[in-house]
């Protein structure tokens, strides 16, 4: 096929071989491909002098000429005439060396993926007084027969800017004049020349919403961060720090006034609304459901298409940077949900990116997720591994994110996850572990902690896979923390029982301590527990209206007493009645009622107590910080535990009564003689409790109890947890 026909049909694989400036011994030639041009003249940009005209080749849009006089220009432009206009363009095909630069080092370090690929704004130093501004495009499509960059700048015409294929499978082109804010996609032809749906940039930094889903050129260097104090402060051991995480879906935490006509609050509006609320409530961290761009609202972000772009539903990338910046300036850490397990089949996304399985496993027994109808990344391909690890680093680098909560880790670890016999492919040893995914997660964690030692990674992992939150050098996956799904399932199952039956399920509240220090756990009451017919946290509780609220308060305080960092989904803290609906706001109007404002007040006080008293957080992941005082009283459905600080000087007891029967003269063992005071009682009237009478201070007696030499006697209110601090002798 002649080059003119290839270019006309957007089927040219190697345009650099034909277009641009070619030097000979004593002459040079320039060839241009400019659709719809009627006349093209060449201008030397260093002198602004004309070099000559190019001659049309036949009836095509290919123009060329050979010049015998003078030296080749260092940089040149075309003066183009067509039926409608005269305009100037700087020939993209003269910058071949600069285009190839994108792929010289892309595989050397993970960070190079987002520093080299995608749409990179560059300045071309070509000897002019002012550098030429351009955008360098680079995309991986190894099995494509042709790739063109299309956008606003060429009327989305795939025949205008064919890209050059490199030996590494990347396609490259430098396009002068393309600037931040310009929209673009890639037109890709598969190996047989068939045109695919136009693809968004896999490493695009900004994306439009439906219906275009176009990528947008973005300049990451413009935003000026103001969180240096947060970044530079000495970060002490996170395991010894208080960590109370508020999990939020930004699209439904709060909705704009109906009169505004807007669907969502913007990132900047959330700065004014969400951050003061989080600060007032005493949470230490915000965890955001996935921020990476996603096409379908109903996926909540868990079907991402643009891993390198914060969703534009709420504003631009700099707006999200401002949100994170303001969180840091207010002492709030930011964790984002990160989804490296799978991706959707949307036509503009990664699925069959060049007509072949570039990003996903080819065999559907490994590459297709039956639960989520989505594609599974091929964790064994070097390019995919680089892509995913680079993305993890990207959020910590460009957006100063403090932590990554990694979604669906179990689905990555097991080849037979959610599959029946015959539906999965064993590993080389005949087992069900996905060695490729395991090594990827280990590599990701090593890279994160080596480059960003103050950051953290958190695994959502629901099985008994060993050493999820242990270092890689110890044979672990390398995560900093792991969600304690076992504690969550057992404790919610228990608390949903009628109190009269809880005596038969007592072990569900104590079993977690059998393995509590095997991993570094976060206790999660997440979005997954209050959706899809599971009901809100309040509605999981048995009994009448008062008992439901009392059960919730008792359970929340038990959670704060139990070893492990804390996570609560939005709405839990006000005792929302309805289960979560991503299409509507948290039911903030409920705070007009004492029941709900009382529950909110309790969560606020629990957070503040948890932060203030090291006994409740310093040894969250060390057996020395915890002791059962009484875990065998199934008959009365009571539990008593001791939490203590590293130096063991601060001793804080938590006693829970999971029945509506007050326990007067309730005695339990303590470590020392002296005075004990009640720090918090979930039955207080300020929390909409019954206000059952109990002494605020008690003195220990030399009465042995619960295998302790001393004991105290208190009145334990109905469906309540109380915290009692040892004050000393």
Automatic annotation (TrEMBL):
UniProt-listed Enzyme Commission number(s): 2.4.1.18
Record key words, sorted: Carbohydrate metabolism, Glycogen biosynthesis, Glycogen metabolism, Glycosyltransferase, Transferase
GO biological process, one term: glycogen biosynthetic process
Pathway: Glycan biosynthesis; glycogen biosynthesis
Top class in the EC scheme: transferase
Active site residues per record: 407, 460
Record-stated family: Belongs to the glycosyl hydrolase 13 family. GlgB subfamily.
Protein name: 1,4-alpha-glucan branching enzyme GlgB
Lineage, top ranks: Bacteria, Pseudomonadati, Pseudomonadota, Gammaproteobacteria, Alteromonadales
